[in-house]
C-alpha cells in the first residue's frame, strides 16, 4: 500500500491549484456517474419494457431484477430458476462495449476529446429515447446497444483523459462509476414507485447526458495540452517532420537515440502493440477478477435461494445486487485512502469467492442468506478495488508518451472478463436448472 500521489503532467500554481484540483476531481466524479448511470438506468427500464412487450402484461417487475418469484410455476428445478440464464442479458449488454474497447484504442486518438464527449452524450440520449418510445422488441434491443456503445466509448475516453490531469482525478472517476450502480437503481426505483411509468422515467433521465456535457465543458479546468477540438496529430506538421528527419540524418547514433526519446508524436502501430504487451500484467488480473465476479452475478446469484428466509426469492436476489453495488461503491472510493499493488491477489481472492459459491449452490451447505449477503458485499469490494488500483498503477508506471493509449487499451480487461463469464454461466445455469 502507498500514500496518496497527486502528481501529474499538468499542475497549476499554488494560488489556484486547490480550487482547480477540486473542480477536476468533482468533474471526473460526475463523468463517472453519468457514464455508468445512464447505462444502469436504461437497462433496468429496457427489461421492464421488454417484459411488457413480450407478455402483453402491464404489471412490471422490480427495477433491475428478473422475475425469479413469479411466472415460474412450471419450473421443477429445486433451484427455482428462470428457464433462460441472466447471462443472456449480460452478453447483450457487454458485447458492443467489448468490440469498441478492442478496436477504438487504435484509432480513437484521431477524434479530439470534445467531439468524443458530445458523441457519447448523443448516444446515451438516443438510447433513452429509443427504449422509452419503443413499440417493438427490436427497438428496445437497439436502445441497449446504443447505451452499451456510449458507456464503452465513454469509459476508455475518460480513462485516457485522466492523463492530462493530476493523478487524483482517477479516485473521482472510480468513485463516480461506483456510485452509478447504487444511485441509478435507487432513483429508477423511486420514480417508478411513486407512480411514474418506465417510459416517463426514462424521458426524465435525459437530464443525465446533459449533466455529462456540463461536467466536461463547464466544470473541468482543462490544461493547455488537452487536444479538445484539434487532432493530436495536427500538432506535428510535415515541416516539423522534415526538420526532425534532417536533424536525425546529421547526428550520430547516440544523438539519434536522444532525439527519439524526446519524440512526442503519436504512437506507431508497432509501438502500440509493444505497449499492449507490457499491459498484460494489468489486464490479465483485471479480466480474471471480473470473470469470477460476473460468473457469480450472472451464473450463481439467482441460484443462491433460501426458501425459509423471511425475504422472497426476488427480494433476496434484489438485495444481493444492491449489496454488491454498495461494495463496489465503497472500494472504488478508497483510492484516496490507500493503494493496493498486489492486483493478482485480488483476482485470486475473487476466484476463491466464485469457487466457494459454486460449491454452495451444488451442495447447499450455507446456512442462511445473511452469510451470502456478506460474501456478495465482499465480492463487490474486491471487484471495485481491482478496477481503481489497476488504472492507478497503469497511470503511474507507464511512460508519459504511452500513458494515454495504455489507459484506453487496458479498459478492455473488465469487458473481456465479463463476456467470458457470460459464456461460462450458460452451461452452469442450464446444469443446475435441469436438476
Automatic annotation (TrEMBL):
**According to its UniProt record, which protein family does this protein belong to?**
Belongs to the battenin family.
Q: Know the name of this protein?
A: Battenin
Q: Which Pfam families match?
A: CLN3
Q: Where is this region: Disordered?
A: 1-20, 236-259
Q: Name one GO cellular component term.
A: endomembrane system
Could you list the residue ranges that cross the membrane? Answer: 28-46, 84-104, 113-131, 137-158, 170-190, 202-220, 279-297, 317-336, 343-363, 369-393, 405-426
Q: Where in the cell is it found?
A: Endomembrane system; Lysosome membrane
Q: Which UniProt keywords apply?
A: Lysosome, Membrane, Transmembrane, Transmembrane helix, Transport
Q: Does the keyword ATP-binding apply?
A: no
Q: Which organism is it from?
A: Xyrichtys novacula (Pearly razorfish)
Signal peptide annotation: none
Main localization is membrane
Q: Which InterPro entries match?
A: Battenin_disease_Cln3 (IPR003492), Battenin_disease_Cln3_subgr (IPR018460), MFS_trans_sf (IPR036259)
Q: Report any one BP term from Gene Ontology.
A: lysosome organization
PANTHER family referenced in this protein's UniProt entry, alphabetically = BATTENIN
Polar residues: bias regions: 1-10
Q: Indicate how the chain sits in the lipid bilayer.
A: Multi-pass membrane protein
Amino acid at each position: 500500500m502507498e500514500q496518496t500521489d497527486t502528481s501529474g503532467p499538468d499542475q497549476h500554481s499554488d494560488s489556484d491549484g486547490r480550487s482547480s484540483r477540486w473542480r477536476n476531481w468533482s468533474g471526473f466524479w460526475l463523468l463517472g456517474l453519468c457514464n455508468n448511470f445512464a447505462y444502469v438506468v436504461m437497462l433496468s427500464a429496457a427489461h421492464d419494457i421488454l417484459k411488457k412487450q413480450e407478455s402483453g402484461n402491464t404489471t412490471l417487475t422490480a427495477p433491475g431484477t428478473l422475475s425469479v418469484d413469479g411466472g415460474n410455476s412450471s419450473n421443477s428445478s429445486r433451484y427455482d430458476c428462470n428457464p433462460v440464464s441472466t447471462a443472456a442479458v449480460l452478453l447483450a449488454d457487454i458485447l458492443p462495449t467489448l468490440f469498441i474497447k478492442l478496436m477504438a484504442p487504435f484509432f480513437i486518438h484521431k477524434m479530439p476529446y470534445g467531439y468524443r464527449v458530445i458523441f457519447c452524450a448523443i448516444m446515451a440520449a438516443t438510447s433513452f429515447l429509443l427504449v422509452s418510445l419503443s413499440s417493438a422488441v427490436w427497438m428496445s434491443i437497439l436502445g441497449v446497444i446504443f447505451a452499451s456503445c456510449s458507456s464503452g466509448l465513454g469509459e476508455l475516453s475518460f480513462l485516457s483523459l485522466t492523463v492530462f490531469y493530476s493523478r487524483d482525478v482517477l479516485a473521482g472517476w472510480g468513485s463516480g462509476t461506483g456510485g452509478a450502480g447504487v444511485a441509478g437503481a435507487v432513483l429508477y426505483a423511486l420514480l417508478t414507485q411513486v407512480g411514474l411509468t418506465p417510459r416517463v422515467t426514462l424521458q426524465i433521465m435525459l437530464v443525465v447526458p446533459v449533466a455529462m456535457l456540463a461536467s466536461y465543458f463547464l466544470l473541468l479546468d482543462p490544461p493547455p495540452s488537452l487536444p479538445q477540438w484539434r487532432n493530436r496529430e495536427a500538432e506535428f506538421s510535415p515541416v516539423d517532420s522534415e526538420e526532425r528527419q534532417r536533424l536525425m540524418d546529421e547526428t550520430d547514433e547516440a544523438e539519434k537515440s536522444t532525439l527519439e526519446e524526446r519524440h512526442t508524436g503519436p504512437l506507431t502501430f508497432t509501438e502500440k502493440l509493444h505497449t499492449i504487451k507490457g499491459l498484460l500484467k494489468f489486464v490479465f488480473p483485471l479480466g480474471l477478477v471480473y470473470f469470477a465476479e460476473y460468473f457469480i452475478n450472472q451464473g450463481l446469484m439467482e441460484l443462491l435461494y433460501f426458501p425459509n428466509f423471511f425475504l422472497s426469492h426476488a427480494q433476496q436476489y434484489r438485495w444481493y445486487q444492491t449489496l454488491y453495488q454498495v461494495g463496489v461503491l465503497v472500494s472504488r472510493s478508497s483510492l484516496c485512502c490507500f493503494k493496493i499493488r498486489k492486483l493478482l491477489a485480488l483476482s485470486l481472492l475473487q476466484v476463491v469467492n466464485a469457487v466457494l459459491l459454486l460449491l454452495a449452490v451444488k451442495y447447499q451447505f450455507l446456512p442462511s442468506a445473511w452469510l451470502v449477503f456478506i460474501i456478495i458485499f465482499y465480492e463487490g469490494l474486491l471487484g471495485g478495488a481491482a478496477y481503481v488500483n489497476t488504472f492507478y498503477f497503469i497511470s503511474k508506471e507507464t511512460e508519459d508518451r504511452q500513458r494515454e493509449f495504455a489507459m484506453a487499451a487496458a479498459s478492455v480487461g473488465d469487458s473481456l472478463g465479463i463476456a467470458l463469464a457470460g459464456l461460462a454461466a450458460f452451461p452452469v445455469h442450464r446444469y443446475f436448472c435441469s436438476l
